[in-house]
Amino acid sequence: MKNFALIGAAGYIAPRHMQAIKATGNMLLAAFDPNDSVGIIDSHFPNADFFTEFERFDRHVDMRRRARNGGQIDYVAICSPNYLHDSHMRFALRSGAHAICEKPVVLNPWNIDGLEEIEQETGRKINTILQLRLHPAIIALRDKVARERRSTKYEVELAYVTSRGHWYLQSWKGDQKKSGGIATNIGVHFFDMLHHIFGKLQSNVVHLSNDTKAAGYLEYEHARVRWFLSVDVEDVPAALRDTGLRTYRSITVDGDEIEFSGGFTDLHDRSYVEILAGRGFGLEECRTAIETVAAIRGGKPMSRDVDSHPFLA
Ligand code: NAD
pLDDT of 272-287, one tens digit each? Predict the structure, then answer.
C-alpha cells in the first residue's frame, strides 16, 4: 500500500483522485488547500490530515519523510491551478515522493527541462494525467492508424464546446497567466491525443483565439486537423442547444464520427493503475502537447482559409 498526499483538495477534480487512490487500494494521509471546503475528504479518507497553510503541510510531509517507523509519503497528487503545477511537483520530488500531476503538466516547454533535472537529482518521477490516451475509442483509433500505415493523411475535424457560466472568466481558469487560456486548459487533452494517434506535429496555425474560444489548423505526420474549442453555449449547434444540451463534442476522421461519448468515468482510476505499475506518462510524453499549446497561446491569429474549421464560416 502506498501513502499519498494531495494538493488542491477542495477543487472540482480532487475527488476523482481521492476515488482513484482508494480504488487502487492506497491511502491518503495528508491534504492541502488554501480553501477549506473539503468535507468530501470524509467520503474517502476520514482520517487524513488537512492543512490550509502550505508551511504546515510542508512541515507535516517533512516530518513523515524523516520518520524512522514508516509513514513516508510515496506520491503527491497535484490538483492545483495550472500555473502552480511546476512548483508543486518540485515540492513533491524534493520531499522524496513521486508526483501525479493533473493536465497540463506545465504551461511552457522550458518548464519541462527544469523538472527533468529535479527528477534526475531526486530519482523520483513525475507522472501526468492524460486520460484520453486510455480511452477505449482512442486506443482503437490509434491501433487502426498504426495498422493501416496509409501514405495519405487522414482528414480530421475536431469541435469541442463545453459551456461554462460567467464564473469561468472570473476564476483562475479564465486568466491566461494562470490557466494558459482555453486551448491550454481545455484543448491540451485533445492536442495530446492527436499527437498520440497521428505522430509528429509538423504545422500549427491559429485562426481564432480569445477568452472563450479558439480555433486553428494542425498538421501531423499522418493527419490534417481543423479544430475548434469553445466555452460559449452559443457555439453548441442550435438544434442541440434547443433541446437543452450545453456540451457538443465531435471528432471526425475522413468524415466518420469517432464515438467516444461514454467510457470517461473511470479513466482516473485507470491512470492510477498504470502509474502504480510503473507505466505512467512522464514529462517527455507531454512535450509535444505542451509545445503545441504554448505555440497556440503565442501565435498571432491568421486569416481564415480552407484549413479553418467549418464553425468559423
Ligand atoms: P478548481 O479551481 O476546482 O480547484 C483548484 C483547487 O486548487 C481549489 O480548491 C483551490 O483552492 C486550490 N488552490 C488554489 N491555490 C492553491 C495553492 N497555492 N496551493 C494549493 N492549492 C491551491 O480546479 P479544478 O477544475 O479542480 O482543476 C484543478 C486541476 O485539474 C487543473 O490543473 C485542471 O487543469 C485539472 N483538471 C483536469 C481534468 C481532467 O479531466 N483531467 C478536469 C478538470 C480539471
Answer: 999 999 999 999 999 9
